[in-house]
Amino acid sequence: MSSNKTQDVHLDESADQFINYLVVEKGLAKNTIASYSADLGLYLDFLKANGIADIADSDTGIVLKHLIALRNAGLGSRSRARHLVTIRGFYRFLVQEKMVATNPAQLVDLPKAGRKLPDVLKLKDVIRLLDTPDPSKPLGLRDAAMLELLYAAGLRVSEVITVGVIDVNLEACFVRVVGKGSKERVVPFGQEARTKLDVYLASGRPLLLKGRLSPYLFVTRSGRSMTRQGFWKLLKRYARKADISRNITPHTLRHSFASHLLERGADLRSVQVMLGHVDISTTQIYTHVAQERLKACHTQYHPRG
Questions:
Q1: pLDDT per residue over 291-304, tens digit each?
Q2: How far apart are CA 152 and CA 46, in angstroms?
Q3: 60-72 and 77-96 are packed helices; what angle lies between their axes, rounded to 10 degrees?
Q4: Is residue 74 left, alpha or beta, with left meaning phi > 0 and alpha meaning psi from -120 to 50?
Q5: Which terminal residue of the chain, N or C, has fewer Cβ atoms less than 10 Å from its own Cβ?
Q6: What are the structural domains, with CATH classification, of the chain?
Q7: What are the pLDDT digits (tens) for 130-183?
Q8: pTM above 0.85, yes or no
Q9: Do 154 and 272 form a contact (C-beta atoms < 8 A)?
Q10: Residues designated as active site
């Protein structure tokens, strides 16, 4: 990878930026952050021990050597798989931030040790969350429409904060978004989202803009687009008001969108298209959630459960 350097990045500096990204933008739980930090610390120590001081000088070979060293130290396949997930995520972030050109961990694979099921809210919790914003205030109208669209269309936070007014068709009830890899997709939404968007566009957005112009659908008091950090904090605040004690992130609503559709009979291919997943195997994880709900339902209600 050294021949594809984009810039020199010190190991500790790159790691600090990655952990900060996980805390501020991804909103991961403290225990998860601690796990990522520990795994990443071991990897950086291994790089330094092998004379690598610049992250751009690492390659697929060094990632493999590190995983072999972990295996020789007695770590099981599950622990090594978790380490690989951390390292892949680290490089994915560095590529995204243009600190390195390629992800050397992407080519490395390990025997599957089971996948963590996505965190999904029950429908009643989603409804309570979506009903929390105050519709008597411009910001409340914005937040109600924004949260409703996020869940109604299964959007990523980066997609919902950058969606433009021109991208929403209220008459046909669909939104056009640009997702990962600059791939464009069109996603339908329902009447609840249409109603809240209609009210926000008519009453909330003009009061926030105060005569200013903005291409963005969702704007702040200053007339600018919302940041990912700002949206994450907003969601946390509404979750507390809705008495949702569990740790939720914008992605929780996306997970819930997919799982709720599958639970109610949607086909996997349609959900894949709406989520913007390139590989259907990425979407298949949600079928496990639906299956777990079916098992729980059977156990609870079947006379021989």
A1: 555 556 556 655 55
A2: 45
A3: 160
A4: left
A5: C
A6: 2-107 (1.10.150.130), 123-298 (1.10.443.10)
A7: 999 999 999 999 999 999 999 999 998 999 999 999 999 999 999 998 877 778
A8: no
A9: no
A10: 156, 180, 251, 254, 277, 286
